[in-house]
Amino acid sequence: MQSVADQASGRSWTGTLVTRGGVLPDVAAFARAVRRVGDQFTLRGVEITARGELTEAGGRAMLRLTGTGELLALAPLLRKVQWDAVSRREAAASAEERGACARLLRERRAGVVRVTGPLAGEPGQAPVLEVREFAWE
Fold it and tell me: How far, in Å, are 8, 13, 30, 32, 46 from residue 89 at the CA level?
């Protein structure tokens, strides 16, 4: 890790960290570390903000990361990582967030795009970035 925020957000129960060299975080390692702290803690997920260019591989929309060249498969948002502390439940995704992936692919163009969303995927497969929001740079 390059840096970790001193304070987590009390509103969304999330923390911020920056990886060295823009390398993707190891979600499984995070989950193991949280479990070691105690059974009362769980890792809801990891949301990333990644910069790259849209491409395609195997008929699937992908994001080629700037700097590392790693490929992330793009997918619609299934669920947010953020927690609604007041309602004591998963934060609800807005219509705009749920439609972000479709909009990104519709607006597809050359150049760098910054995409934010949960990082998912199975070991041995390309990681999946569920698109919650994006901005063209």
Answer: 17, 11, 21, 23, 17
